[in-house]
Amino acid sequence: MSALLEVKNLKTHFFRKKQTIPAVDGVDLTIKKGETVALVGESGSGKSITSLSIMRLIPSPGGEIVDGQVLYNGTDLIELPEKELLKIRGNEISMIFQEPMTSLNPVLTIGQQIIEVLIYHQKMSKSKAKQKAIELLEMVGFSRAAELINDYPHRLSGGMRQRVMIAMAMSCSPKLLIADEPTTALDVTIQAQILDIMKQLSNKFGTSVLLITHDLGVVSEIADRIVVMYCGQVVEEATVGDLFENPLHPYSEGLIESVPSIEGEISRLQSIEGNVPPPENLPEGCRFAPRCPKAFDRCFQEMPTLSKKLSRSVRCFLYEQEEVGK
Amino acid sequence: MTTYIIRRLVMAIPLLIGITIISFAIVQMAPGDPTSLLMDPNISPADRAKFMEKYGLNDPIYIQYFKWVGNMLQLDFGSSLLKKGTPVTELIMNRLPNTLLLMLVSTIFAFLISIPFGIYSATRPYSKTDYSVSVISFLGLATPNFWLGLMLIMFFSVKLGWFPTGGVSTLDAPFNVWDRIHHLILPAFVLASADMATLTRHTRSSMLDVTKQDYMRTARAKGFKERTVIYKHGLRNGLTPIITIFGILLPTFIGGSVIVETVFSWPGIGRLFIESAFSRDYPVIMGLTVLSSVFVVLGNIIADILYAITDPRVEY
Ligand SMILES: Nc1ncnc2c1ncn2[C@@H]1O[C@H](COP(=O)(O)OP(=O)(O)OP(=O)(O)O)[C@@H](O)[C@H]1O
Ligand code: SF4
Ligand SMILES: [Mg+2]
């Protein structure tokens, strides 16, 4: 499998009152064709900003991609002229967001919001786009799709709106779907249904998925690989099997230990003491050092690099010299 | 929708009754009575009593009120105490078209100018352009209409001779559309000026709020050009609150027309109001007060209905 998306040394900073906030600080990430990659980490670790940077949707002024590359099929999206970028956005790479209640336009019908994408990117006729919109809504599980396209979003529940968002995002059969915590705001009973629909459709269209989530339980079911982020950096990257069986980074270890045994998300990481440091006030050395049970002197002075060990990578001094394998 | 409109109209009835009571009461309480103005102070008490009798001024207050309302329902607002007893309805109808034309054109001015400026400011918040638009808006808001009107007449009409100094059309000339437009531009602009400022401020804040909404990010993520995002996804959301503002601005248009019509010698109901007020021509004053109140109430109902049409979340 070849790489569909390669993020290299991505740095997205926010500038506020002479203060620089390194929300994303040198992220490397690879997504292969047809693969589902999960991006996990505590709140504030920079997951959303990473995904918005890939789409070049960082709110400006305020935030800026200051360094790095986002190679999509080998072309750097960051350097791409706006006109070319717009052909990819929403067409080859699409996105769904955490807030289903507010992500749809309240004054346009559901049909209009799907149809406009098909007309814009696929140059479909209006009637053909309407037909396709109905099909898409049926695919995400609406039985009365033909009537639904004339409805406005406020009549739908959060789960239904997120299904509409999925239908919209999948409308051009994208190569990559970025889903930023698509189920966090939803009822637990609906979460499984939404993930199921996403999984089905991505298989059907051969779409790669970047799934951002808090929920490690979800990850083990749906993802092929996991990327763990902490304070704007990737600290570990491995296949789902490797990570769950043998987490290397002390932070990953803590995350896995704190997965609730039955269900639900990690509201508080019991096994990791302390809090995530704010990005404008990061510790020196390893960013995890103040909370790391295995920290030693060097950790407080130097920053470990992300080093490749066979099929996985880890950012920790404990693994710098020795070969890591299974 | 039809039931919603009917319901809104029915709900307006108590409001209108209240308005008639208040306007009647205000005129009753005003100092001086028409006889003191109309008549020779040396008139005989008998003639004076005859006059009072003729106009029903001797009846108890509530009888006067019911008579007045009853007549009004038949569109009879009584007769002017001056102007040779011309019926008020006729006086108003002669002037009304001029005022409606002026208000219509200045509403169009206000919207055409302020909405683009408001959007421009909102999409570049805190930029130099945004600050300039704000400063001009506040100046517009702070400038009294009569002063602005006089300045414009002095500059554009007297000095440059580009526009006429007043009136609806050139005297004794045959009807000519261009001539009418020529006469309309300055007064309509002045009447619009204060509301332009308010509308620009409201458009800016409403659109600024809209640009931060999640659905705008969704629209960008679809790959649309920024212009499509703003105008297709943003504008309809941002304009909905502006429609209700229009309902609020309508009274300022009516109030403003009194001044603007006076400055530009525009023969509309605003000037009729000033003339009648100075001569205590009660039937005309009351007719005009009730008429403008009905306008304001209707304007608000229309704004509500438009709001319900543009915002699908409104249940009716
Ligand atoms: N508009 C902004 N202005 C300033 N700083 C910002 C802005 N947006 C994000 N940040 C900073 O970037 C950091 C990372 O934010 P991000 O939204 O990527 O976190 P996240 O990992 O997605 O967290 P969550 O799980 O809560 O969604 C935040 O801690 C915040 O300080
Ligand atoms: S480098 Fe040190 S502090 Fe950082 S995770 Fe590894 S052991 Fe812990
Ligand atoms: Mg987030």
Overview of the structural elements:
Chain B: It is found in: Cell membrane. Chain B: Keywords: Cell membrane, Membrane, Transmembrane, Transmembrane helix, Transport. Chain B: It is a multi-pass membrane protein. Chain B: It comes from Chengkuizengella marina. Chain B: Pfam families: BPD_transp_1, BPD_transp_1_N. Chain A folds into 2 domains: 3-92 and 173-275, P-loop containing nucleotide triphosphate hydrolases (Rossmann fold), CATH 3.40.50.300; 106-171, no CATH class. Chain A is 30% helix and 24% strand. Chain A has helices at 47-54, 82-88, 110-122, 126-139, 145-148, 158-169, 188-205, 216-222, 240-245, 250-257, and strands at residues 3-16, 19-32, 36-40, 63-72, 75-76, 93-96, 176-180, 208-213, 225-230, 233-239, 307-309, 312-314. Chain A has an 8-stranded mixed sheet, sandwiched between helices. In chain A, strands 2-1-4-5 form a 4-stranded antiparallel sheet. The longest helix of chain A has 18 residues, at 188-205. Chain A is globular, with a radius of gyration of 20 Å. Chain A starts with a strand and ends in a 12-residue tail after the last strand. Residues 261-269 of chain A have low confidence and may be disordered. Chain B is mainly alpha-helical. Chain B has a domain at 95-278: MetI-like fold (Orthogonal Bundle), CATH 1.10.3720.10. Chain B is built from 12 helices and no strands. Chain B has helices at 2-29, 34-38, 45-54, 61-73, 88-123, 128-142, 145-159, 177-211, 214-221, 226-263, 269-278, 282-310. In chain B, helix 1 runs antiparallel to helix 12 (282-310), helix 5 crosses helix 8 (177-211) and helix 11 (269-278) packs antiparallel against helix 12 (282-310). The A-B interface holds A 55, 57, 85-91, 94-95, 97, 99, 102-108, 116-117, 120-121, 152, 154, 165, 168 and B 213-215, 217-225, 232-233, 236-237, 240, 310-313. The site of iron/sulfur cluster (SF4) has 13 residues of chain A, from loops.
